[in-house]
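> tool_call: predict_assembly(chains=two)
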Amino acid sequence: MNFAFSDDQVLLRNSVRAALDEQCTPEHVRAMMDDTRGHGEALWGEMAKLGWLGLPFAEEYGGAGLGLVELCLVQEELGRAAYPGPYFASVVLGGLGLVLGGSAAQKEKWLPAVASGSARLSAALVEESLDWDPAATGATAARSGDGWTLTGVKRFVPWAHVADMVLVPARTPEGLSLFLVAPSSPGVSLRPMVGIDLANRWSEMTLQGVTVKPDALVGQPGAAGSLLEALLRRAAVSASAEMLGAARRCLDLSVEYAKVREQFGQPIGSFQAIRHRCAEMLVAAENAHAAVYYAAWALDAGAEDAAVAASVCKSYVGEAARQVCGDAIQVHGGIGFTWEYDLHLYFKRAKALEPLYGDAEYHRELIARHVVV
Amino acid sequence: MDLNYTPEDIAFRKQVRAWLEQNLPREPIRTLAEHRVWHKKLYEAGYLGMGWPKEYGGGGARPMEQAIVGDEMARANAPAPTNGLGLGIVGPTIVVHGTEAQKQRYLRKILTAEEMWCQLYSEPNAGSDLAALKTSAVDQGDHFVVNGQKIWTSGGAVADWGLLLARTDPKVPKHRGITCFLMNMRQPGVDVRPLKQITGSSEFSEVFMTNARVEESDQIGKLGEGWAIAQTTLGYERGGRSLARVTTYAAQYGSLVNAARRLRRHGRPLSDDPLVRQKLGRIWAELEVERYSALRVLTQLERGEHPGAGGSVTKLSYSEFEKRFMELAEEILGPYGQLTDGAPPEYQLQIDTAVGERGTWAYAYLWSRAGTIYAGSSEIQKNVIGERILGLPKETRADRAGAMR
């Protein structure tokens, strides 16, 4: 039993942090907030070169063959930097989606391209109702010729505007199925959904009679339910890692500020009102750390409690990160409410991810199904 | 990172489980004499003082083995050993700070519960501000004469010996004038009175010392260094039982879920009510987070790292969680949750509480108020976290510089 990172994992975290400190500065984040595409090719190329984009793929697909624990280490650092770009969409949603359910041909075609950065993927996991249960999917796919025709509306599809291919769940006569759809296909239209986190991008994706070839089907028709549940768990845990990173950065900024900001003739960190708040933030961050990495390990190891652990993680970390980032604004006072100061970048990152991939109530009900029945 | 238990640990767990099945008392334990018999059995099986040096009767075991024994005992709802303060605090203090003679004289008898111990720290006017303690110990050459009053002395009523903090120099700043002693409780100058708590029971005592005598050879550490020693003993109190604690919570949770399946509101079981399910789901998530954190602490201990101030994070987290958990239990159980007597079996808590043996929800609820006060209140833990982990500046305090009186 060992709940500590290995030397290799520590090395990975340090190198990711060092690279992001240099290339994903707050200035870069702010520049990308105003950028049309929203992410920089230079950083993307660097991420490919450093092997981050193929981190969880098998070596035969140009990946590093690492697990969700390592992926979460990277995601945590990305959150800490309020990284702007499609890493999560491409590597976690699209990449792991294909790892979980893709055919050998699909993996061969897409995973090396994701790993090299030449292709970007995403997944469209929710619709108008915001029900994250894959069974709630309303989009349909009808057979047409030897292929399929898809119709439906997907919402909050991350980085669809730069994606080459999006995983789209749709209902077929056989049941819930999963398809690869290029946003550039005729019949697909994207509409930006601009949220408070301007360094992150989402689209509404409308499919009006979009025709795809037979090889667009991921897995067997009617068999996508368990695949999507498995993907949702990994997305929830990875997003939690990113929220944890945002919370850590907010805590660090708060502690540093509380040491130097003086009021009433002394540093505000010497007042218990501030110190106790910072201590509570640390407890929340440490607990969130335990929740993220336990769940990541459990999913990697196929542990009996992996599904519950993923829901424990998402429900706990979402609220903990919101609390920590909000408290950070309170510790800072007025400066924390300004656009110029960087705190809001992380506050908004945590808030933006909180309701995605199942909010706390969604995951608590999943927990209850296991332990209350 | 690998959270699987090793084959050795799994084998050890099986062995402990089998031993408990064989040896668990068939009848509830009531008297101190019965407790001592059970305690002795545990010791002879090698399950007490597992981490202490072998030469003083300990087992030299790894932290994981100690945690497994605690965990299996919680799982089996086994009665706790007696002499908890001796095992948890006094023994480790003597191991670290005691002289060779003190180790030879005291350690084995703590393990066998031949001598019971208490801790004489808090005073009526020195709670969170423990260093303000006023009990005096005056040097008479070969012994000290002790006068003063202690409070919140757990196990005081049965203790043969006490680990005492007393002021030996009132002329220096308060943190520097305190010395640590081992005091014989069985002497005319020591008067122990039970302190009745909000639970109606008396796990704690008040202790009055009037010209009590402490031998010079029973001084622990150097004169004036008692505060530093007390800091380390408070450290032992934090985090050690974390895995067993969570297993007890999980058993209590199971009991609560069973009750929620029987109780009804608007014609349907509470366990089908989405609001109740949300609350139960939240508490299970928090409980699991406590378990993961316990595994993290165990990893540190296994690597030979002392959690230090990190223990404050653990203690703050679980004690505050326990209050939220018990508040939810009361909410679900309604008036059943308040019964101290006459609860139907399906609404009884069949599980031992943290320190007592009364398995009622009412008792567990009341006890949950203690955890955020004893061994350093939540407010003190937050000060420790702020100063020692986050490095925030200490507050400007008038009491750090001047002499005690």
